[in-house]
Each structure stands twice: as C-alpha cells, then as structure tokens.
Amino acid sequence: MLKPLPSESARRLHDFFVEAGFTQEQLRDHLKLHELPSAPKNLPYFLDRTRELSLLDVLIRWFRLGVPLQGQFISGLVPHLIVMLLLESGMLIRDGAALAPTVMLTPYAGYLFVADLASRLESEQASDLVLWPNPTSRLLHLFTNRSPSQATLDLGTGSGMQAILAAPHSQKVSATDLNARAAEFVAFNSSLNGVHNIEILTGDTFQPVEGCRFDLIVANLPFYVTPSSMRLYCENNLDLDDYCRRVVCEGPNYLEEGGYLQMTLEWVQVRGQAWQHRLAEWLQNTGCDAWVLRGYARDAAAYAQERIGKVMSSSGEAAAARFEEWMAYYRSRNVEEVHGGLLAMRRRSGKNWVRVEEMPVNPCEPFGDSVLETFANYDALASHREDWQLLALKPRLAADAQLDQGFHRAGGKWVLDAMKVVRTKGLPASLAVDSQVAEFLGRCDGSRTLRQLAAELASAAHADLSQVEPQCCAVVRKLLERRLVLS
User: How many Å separate Cα 415 from the centre of its chain?
Assistant: First the structure.
C-alpha cells in the first residue's frame, strides 16, 4: 500500500532520485536503449548492464527491473534516511534479508511517476494494473495544448501522468478513473512531485464529474478493440469501438465554450463503410469543431496478433486459440481494419467543421501549439470562403518556417531541383513552392493584408492584379491548411 509522504520528506525523496541520475536521459544512456525498459523480457541483459551496482544501478534494479536486493549490496550507497523513506512510503518492503520494490518508477518530463511493477502485467492481478508512462501516454502529452485552464479533467488518469503534467497550467485538475487502485497512485505521485491542485475521483467515465464543465479534457482511453480479457488499463466492456464513440459524443457536454477535448482513440472499418464515414457519424451534431490525426491502420489479423502480444503472455496452442477467438469476434462484426490516432475537439457555437489528416511522423517534441494554430487557421478558412474575404486577412509566416532547396548536378554545375517551405518545430509540415511564391512568403509578416501583398506582387511582376489576387488566395489557402502561414 502506497503512502504519500509529508511535503518535506516527499521533496527530499524526489531530489534524491534526480541527484542520483535517475532521469529520463541518463537512464536511456545508461541502459543503451532508445526506449526505457518497462517490461524487460531479457532480464539477464539488463542485470549485466547494471552489474557494477553503483547507486544508479541499485535504483534501476529496484525500480525499473523489480529486483530485490540484499542489504550488503546497498550498504554505503543508499543513505539510511532514504531507505527509511522508501519503506515508509511503501515503495520498498522487507522480504527476509532483502529489500524488495513494490512499484516501478519512471522519470518523464522532469517528473517521477510511480506505477505497478511490470511483473503484475503477467500475473493474475493484471486486470487492475496501473500502467507506467508509455508511448501512447507520452504522445497524448506532446499533443495536449497548454493554454491556461480554470478547470482540467484527466479522464482515465491511471498513474496521474496527464493530470500532473496539466497542473502547472490549470487552476484545478480533476483526475478520474474506473480503476479504484488508480487513486492511490495519483495521490502518491502528486505528493512525490509537489503538485497540490488535483482532486482524485473514482467512477465510470464522466459520472464522477456530472454537471461540471472544463476548459480542457485529456483522455488516454482504454481503447483496445478486443474481446474483453479484463484489462482495465487498455480495454473496456463495450463492443468494438463503442467506448471511444461514447466519449466523443458525451465529452462536449462537459466542455466550456471554447474548451478542448484531446484524446487517443481507435476505431474500426467495417465492411461496406469507409472509416472516414464512421468517424464523421460520431462527430456530427456534437457542437464541436474536430481535428483527427490518423496515426496507423492494421488489418484485423495483424491487429489481433499485435494486441494479443501486449495484453497476455500465452504461447503455442493457447496463443493460437486466443487468436482464433479474436478473429471470430472480428469476423462476426465484419471488421476489416482497425485505425488509431489522436482527436482534438473544441466546443464552439455556430456551424462546425471537421478535418481528418494523416499524422506525418511520430512526433518527439511537444506540438500542442500546432493544435491551437490548426483550429485558428481552419476557423479563418471557414470564415473567409470567398476571395474578397480572404484578401482582408493578414497572413503571417510561421516563425519556425524555413526554405529548403534541393539541387542536382548537371553539365558540371548545380541546378536547382526543387524548393519547399517546411516547419522545423512541432508537427512537421511542408509545401513545394517556386521562387515567386517563396519571395511572396518572405513578405508575409502579419503587418499587411493579403490584398496589399498581392498588389505589391502584381506591381513588381508587371502583372494584372485581377489575375494575381486569385492566385495569391489559392496559395494562402494551401499554406493555411498546412500551418505554414498563420491567420
């Protein structure tokens, strides 16, 4: 049982881990892995990587590998006071002559997050596992916009990662989860990280916050499209993708005007219906604008194989039987493919718009600002449908935009091959341009209207303004859609 420590003790414990080098970067370098090991399948390899038993090696063995250590191995390395705090908090327990870890500890974005040991994933207790920070939760963090929020909801909070990351820009955060064990971890992690503006609630989906409204809702949903294997952290008890649909349809009722719902999700493509149409049905009449970023698609068989490997350790005949069970489930419901990605919705009165895009890459840095830019640009496109309206806009080239040029060698010299404008930060974007468009873009600094810019271009090129204006409008619309120019 985890026990939140008093503020001073929690700060001392947190500082100890950081000073010992238990950080995201140092663990990755120390273990020579691109991803931190959350459930290592080759324990001897990781034990070899930590064989020197330095202070950092001890902490890794305890809180990444889940390995008990005898007292003689930590003597002189871990201060007695820290050992007492780890025991008092419940992060360690005495197991005969050894000290055994009860939790996994993951450093991320300057915070420390306690979650269940990876061994619980393979045990009979896996149903109520509280998961550690993982690629999906990190992706949602990168996607989340960080505008000031009076009230934020972390739906399906788990270890409280999203709630804690949202705390600095939120006056109050509500963290909810159906899994009653999650509350214990959120309380502990809030204390460990010195975060005090989070309320913790237990219940199904929006039930704990009935009647409340939020400026921001973040949701890393248990979205796996599977026959239930009773894993609360990744599955739900509704059929196929109905739980994601439920959150999409109910979520707007809990948003303030102008508030955002940002979530991870999966949805299916069934025979006779395009996946785009399925999403469009969900998003109709929600009172929200919506931006979908599709990150992946798997045919039913590939999806079953991938997900079975993540939620259970069966092999041989048991694995084959499980695969057949899942495929029978998909066939009975005409599932051809499963798609996944990110969704941002913003509650707004008036005629709403929906945009669906492919995620260009797997992002590795925050792109929450791209969400705000995208909604502002699509608003501008929706409200400036006619050229005469768009000509009044003052387009501004994104601050991180740059012009890339490609050359090929011909006749003993370099010949310009192509030019494109690209964004160097956040969510990647690019558009091929010619020299005239590139020069035009260089003048888009937000100080002049598109009408003025078109007039300057027409004058410099000795061209007919009535022809230049429509061309400029067409270019700016493309640039707005790709977030290269901001409204």
Answer: 42
Q: Decide: helix, strand or coil at residue 275.
A: helix
> Do 263 and 215 have their domain in common?
yes
Regarding whether 472 and 362 lie in a shared domain, the answer is: no
**Is 116 domain-assigned?**
no
Here the tokens at position 408 are 């090929």
Measure the CA–CA gap between 155 and 142, rounded to whole angstroms.
17
Query: In sequence order, which residues have a C-beta less than 8 Å from that of residue 454 and are 6 or more positions away?
Result: 391, 465, 468, 469, 472
Q: Specify whether 130 is located in the same domain as 94.
A: no
Q: Which residues of 53-70 are buried (b: 16+ CB within 10 A; e: fewer)?
A: eebbbbbbbbbbbbbbbe
In angstroms, rounded to a whole number, what is the distance separating the alpha carbons of residues 220 and 215?
A: 17
Hey, is 106 helix, strand or coil? Answer: strand
Contact call for residues 216 and 259 (beta carbons, < 8 A): yes
- Residue type at 78 in one-letter notation: V
Distance, C-alpha 443 to centroid of its chain: 35
Q: What's the distance, CA 454 to chain centroid?
A: 40
For residues 22 and 194, what is the distance between their CA atoms, to the nearest angstrom?
17
pLDDT by residue for the chain (487 residues), tens only, comes to 899 999 999 999 999 999 999 999 998 887 766 555 544 567 888 888 888 889 999 999 999 999 999 987 788 899 999 999 999 999 999 999 899 999 999 999 999 999 999 888 877 788 899 999 999 999 999 999 999 999 999 999 999 999 999 999 999 999 999 999 999 999 999 999 999 999 999 999 999 999 999 999 999 999 999 987 677 788 898 999 999 999 999 999 999 999 999 999 999 999 999 999 999 999 999 999 999 999 999 999 999 999 887 776 666 788 888 899 999 999 999 999 999 999 999 999 999 999 999 998 778 899 999 999 999 999 999 999 999 999 999 999 999 999 999 999 998 899 988 899 999 988 889 999 988 889 889 999 999 999 999 999 999 889 999 999 999 999 999 999 999 999 9
Tell whether 57 is covered by a domain: yes
- pTM: predicted TM-score of the whole model, two decimal places: 0.94
Determine contact, residues 367/427, Cβ cutoff 8 Å.
yes
Query: Could you give the CA distance from residue 57 to residue 421 in angstroms, rounded to a whole number?
Result: 46
Half-sphere exposure of 183 (CA within 13 A, CB side): 10
Contact 234, 121 (CB under 8 A): no
Tell me how far apart the alpha carbons of residues 322 and 312 are, in angstroms, rounded to a whole number: 10
Residue 6 in tokens = 């008093």
CB atoms closer than 10 angstroms to residue 146: 16
Whether 335 and 416 share a structural domain = no
